[in-house]
Design goal:
Strand content: under 5%
Order of helices and strands: H
Mean pLDDT: 76
Low-confidence stretches: none
Structural class: mainly alpha
Shape: elongated
Radius of gyration: 26 Å
Number of strands: 0
Largest sheet: none
Number of helices: 1
């Protein structure tokens, strides 16, 4: 007779979801989904945004 305990059953696999992804709201469906930022005000914030969004060939 074996004295080893029974092995634990493997974890269940995640269920496949066949929902239509277009039925779900994405971040693009909201007003904040298009890159709008909250109005932080001030010239320093504008400069930071300009430097963050500047393409690399404009350095």
């Amino acid at each position: 007779m074996s004295s080893t305990p029974d092995p634990e059953p493997p974890a269940p696999k995640p269920a496949l979801v066949f929902d239509d992804p277009l039925d779900q709201q994405s971040s693009d469906d909201t007003d904040r989904g298009w890159g709008e930022r909250t109005d932080s005000g001030g010239g320093a914030a504008d400069l930071k945004r300009f430097l963050d969004e500047k393409p690399p060939h404009h350095i």
